[in-house]
Task: structure prediction
Amino acid sequence: MAQQKSYQGDPALHEFRAQEILQPLHNSIPPELLPRFDPVYVEYYNKYNAGRLHTHEVPIEEYRKDPGKYTIFYGNEPGPDVFRITEQRCPVEAGEITIRIFEPAPKTDDQAQPEKRAAYINFHGGGWVFGGLNTDHDYCKRLVHALDGDLVVFDVDYRLSPEYRFPIPVDDCWTAFNWVCIDGLPGLAA
Result:
């Protein structure tokens, strides 16, 4: 024999269940917009971005402790190995910054003279606040490799805001540009 439930108060309140509301993941693509996107992009976006906080939603101190936790690297396949990767210090106002140099194997012309090579100076993205040498490392390797030894890449690790206020990051980049032009490497095309 089934026991009868004994309620006190309003029986409807005892049977009440809150409606379950399923919220989309933070930063997800709204369902009504999904048909506008390439399915490969949607898969990639959902894998690497949906549910993650945007960098502006993270206190800068937390970001600096573990940038990899918050940085999204779109399309960063490991870059092919290149002949030489070194780092040099570049003097800037009130300090130094690092410039990472990606070099192809040297080439010589018909007279056994070293061929001149173009220079590409990379200033990583991140709105002067985020990023660093690790951000574009594989990208720089791919550039050198894809241009068959005709290009040297200089990746600039300028100082970041808010620790270094404007115009310091911009000034660092300008100083690095001039450093590459004057002191960078012998054998660069003028």
Notes: The beta strands are 84-92, 95-103, 118-123, 151-157. Residues 10 and 16 are 10 Å apart (CA to CA).
